[in-house]
Specification:
Elements: H1 2-7, H2 16-69, E1 73-81, E2 84-89, E3 95-98, H3 102-107, E4 113-116, E5 122-125, H4 129-135, E6 138-139, H5 154-169, H6 171-177, E7 184-188, H7 195-205, E8 209-214, H8 215-220, H9 226-239, E9 243-248, H10 263-280, E10 288-294, H11 302-305, E11 312-315, H12 321-331, H13 343-349, H14 355-371, H15 379-403
Parallel strand pairs: 7-10, 7-11, 8-9, 9-10
Antiparallel strand pairs: 1-2, 1-4, 2-3, 4-5, 6-8
The protein binds adenosine-5'-triphosphate and magnesium ion.
Length: 404
């Protein structure tokens, strides 16, 4: 560009003002050129600087990674002081004063668990131990079971609602009358009669936090930690009052104490003792209700049944004829049935059926129709299904007899 301007041949007869203009332009050009030069220098400097920072960044990232990789120790924050944070290491119980960034300090509170490195700097804060493990138990979404889907046990449903739901919805009522609200109910009865369903319906109905744990999980999921888990369970409930704790298959932890001294039994017993003591600490338990369920009532340790622990023992029996009819209706709601299907007579025929059996009969009846290339389910399909299911049950019993 500059060349072109330099090389321009100026005509001699150019007047003075033209000359001046050109002169001015030339000067301007020089200024711009020198500015350009300066900028180029600055750019080079900046590039060099950038390189330096890039290298520094890499080094720090690497160091940071190494710091995080080396095993970290767990400590608990004791105190936030002007001079730093006092932590106490787990294991050796040694206390130490350590400094933290402003940012991290804002997140810390006494009793928080943190991870520290070799030089006892806090690398990160850890989630609360209780919460992490107990979160597994908390049911965030209500299970989709409603009372309307449970047939034949109306009285029991009423009783559960009265003991669990009402005190949660209307705690003032009990104060007015001057009695303590009931603490918990135990549902017991043969398999497949709707006990678990009932607890789920309660969960669905109430706004309280619903925390569910199966007895077998308490014992088997975290071996050696059943007792701690029970404590966590109640801690979690206390943190989220009002809450309902549902312990399904409670027989797994509350079976009669046996003479045997195997470690498994000792573990189960520790778990149960913890449960008993949590249930007894009722005054401090606040707005928490307990629902427990079992199909092995005979196996339960009497200690768990003592007054003050469960206020109500609710038997959930197999349905009677009327109940069976209702359950048939419930489970065939979305089925394409022939008009001739008569639930009353089906209910008469399925004397020993539980709710779960009836559900199975309905599904199986549908299968019979499909096999027969029909879209409509006939009464005979239900009869055949019941026969098949009974047959399977006796087969199962035969099998288990041969194996034992
Ligand atoms: N009273 C009932 N009304 C409608 N359906 C029922 C009823 N009882 C059982 N069922 C059906 O059987 C299934 C199993 O029932 P549920 O799990 O509630 O039995 P349970 O009493 O908890 O048995 P278990 O003692 O073996 O745990 C339910 O999902 C439902 O489909
Ligand atoms: Mg159940």
């Amino acid at each position: 560009m500059t060349d072109t301007v330099d090389n321009v041949d100026l005509p001699y007869d150019e007047d003075a003002s033209q000359q001046e203009k050109i002169e001015a332009l030339r000067e301007r050009l020089e200024v711009l050129e020198s500015q350009n030069e300066e900028m180029r220098d600055k750019l080079l400097d900046a590039n060099a600087e950038n390189n330096k920072y890039q290298q520094k960044l890499e080094r720090l990232t690497h160091e940071n990674k190494k710091l995080k990789q080396s095993p970290l120790f767990v400590a608990t924050v004791q105190e936030l002081t002007g001079e730093g944070v006092i932590i106490k290491q787990h294991g050796n119980n040694q206390e130490a004063l350590t400094e933290v960034t402003e940012e991290m300090r804002e997140d810390l509170e006494p009793d928080d668990r943190v991870a520290v490195n070799n030089s006892l700097s806090i690398v990160k804060s850890l989630d609360d131990e209780t919460d992490v493990r107990a979160r597994v138990m908390q049911v965030d979404e209500s299970p989709g079971v409603t009372y309307g889907e449970i047939g034949g046990i109306q009285e029991q449903i009423e009783e559960v609602r009265e003991t669990v739901e009402m005190p949660l919805k209307n705690p003032g009522m009990f104060d007015d009358v001057g009695i303590d609200p009931p603490s918990g109910v135990l549902l017991y009865g043969p398999p497949g009669t709707g006990k678990t369903m009932m607890a789920k319906a309660v969960a669905n109905q109430t706004d309280a936090t619903f925390i569910k744990m199966a007895g077998s999980e308490l014992v088997h999921k975290f071996i050696g930690e059943g007792a701690k888990l029970v404590r966590d369970l109640f801690d979690l409930a206390r943190q989220h009052e009002p809450a309902v704790i549902f312990i399904d298959e409670i027989d797994a932890i509350a079976a009669k104490r046996t003479e045997s001294k195997t470690s498994g039994d000792a573990e189960v017993q520790r778990t149960m003792m913890q449960l008993l003591s949590e249930m007894d600490g009722f005054e401090e338990r606040g707005d928490i209700r307990i629902i427990a369920a079992t199909n092995r009532f005979d196996m339960l340790d009497r200690a768990i049944l003592r007054p003050g622990r469960f206020d109500r023992l609710i038997e959930v029996p197999k349905p009677d004829a009327e109940g069976r009819e209702q359950i048939f209706q419930i489970h065939t709601r979305s089925m394409n049935l022939a008009e001739t299907v008569d639930f009353a007579s089906l209910a008469e025929e399925t004397t020993e059926a539980s709710g779960a059996d009836i559900k199975a009969i309905c599904t199986e009846a549908g299968m019979f129709a499909i096999r027969d290339d029909r879209t409509e389910v006939l009464e005979q399909d239900f009869v055949d299904a019941w026969e098949k299911i009974q047959q399977e049950e006796t087969d199962d019993e035969d099998v288990s007899r041969t194996f034992h």
